[in-house]
Amino acid sequence: MKTRIERIQIDTLGGVQIIDITNQVQELLTKSDLKEGLVTVFVPGSTATVTTIEYEPGLIADMEKALDRIAPKNGHYEHDQRWHDGNGHSHVRAAFLKPSVAIPFSNKTLMLGTWQQLVFIELDVRARNRTIVVHLMGD
């Protein structure tokens, strides 16, 4: 079994920003010498996440509304009381969505569903430069 670690850099604007990274991850897989295996996509940090969704405008709007219901921006957060950085809701949202996802691949192709894309979601209140870690493992 072989492994390979790659990285994707993304500059974000802050606030909820949902970015389709499917093609970037697929490109890294295509360039690798692996044909079958598992890719884990991980974002270091506690105010961002990766997940899969159907990447289309209606669902993006639905996701933003759902995040507001889960952890409203204007809610009271002990984190904000302690650190005064205004991103307590960002941490709570990220904790529910998690920092990584694992996707099998076969014949150098991610085994995603027809309407399923891999997305990075920025949840922090300020612009960030994010590094997404892509760990390929297989034969």
Structural description of this entry:
The protein is of the alpha+beta class and 139 residues long. It has 4 helices and 8 strands, in the order ββαββαααββββ. It has helices at 22-31, 57-70, 78-83, 88-97, and strands spanning 2-11, 17-20, 37-42, 48-53, 100-106, 109-110, 117-122, 129-138. It has a 5-stranded antiparallel sheet, with helices on one face. Strands 2-7-4 form a 3-stranded antiparallel sheet. A hairpin with a 2-residue loop joins strand 5 (100-106) and strand 6 (109-110). The radius of gyration is 16 Å and the shape is elongated. The mean pLDDT is 97.
H/E order of the elements? EEHEEHHHEEEE
- Number-wise, the strands total 8
| CATH architecture name | Sandwich
Mean pLDDT equals 97
User: Could you name the CATH homologous superfamily?
Assistant: YjbQ-like
- Strand content bin: 35-45%
- The span between the termini is 5 Å
The number of helices is 4
The CATH topology turns out to be Jelly Rolls
Radius of gyration, taken over Cα atoms and rounded to an integer in Å: 16 Å
Which regions contain 5 or more consecutive residues with pLDDT less than 50?
Answer: none
CATH class: Mainly Beta
The 3D shape can be described as elongated
Main sheet? 5 strands, antiparallel
- Give the total of domains: 1
Largest sheet, order of strands side by side? 1-8-3-5-6
Helix fraction bin: 25-40%
Helix- and strand-based class?
Answer: alpha+beta
